[in-house]
Prior knowledge:
Shape: globular
Largest sheet: 4 strands, mixed
Strand content: 15-25%
CATH architecture: 2-Layer Sandwich
Structural class: alpha+beta
CATH class: Alpha Beta
Number of helices: 3
Radius of gyration: 14 Å
Strand order of the largest sheet: 1-2-4-3
Amino acid sequence: MRQTFSKDERLRSHRLISKLFAEGSVFYLKPFRITWMRHLSDTPVPVVVMMSVPKYNFRRAVQRNLIRRRMKEAYRLNKHIFGSSFAANGWQLDMCITYTTKEILPFNRIQEKIILLLHRLIEENEKVAR
């Protein structure tokens, strides 16, 4: 798997975002809140992601952008953990990763949590698949 985070891998559809928040499953892994949903799709990208940093925690856009860049980079470097677990049988995983802490964590801490998050997401997906 290439270590890129292309436009195709980003959740952009307003319809899918609304459906994700209305029907998706949620779990927390400090400092993140993960909303995810699995559905059938014919797109070539098995995992589509949206990163969110709420304005009520960080009023300055510079801070929100810094955190969002760190989250995207951590995901980009570690998305190989998924492997082909979501590509089987035409399933697609939509997820939103929301940063919930009111402090700016260093990149290393964010990356550790993203790795844990990806492993937990694989476990959650296997529960649903059964």
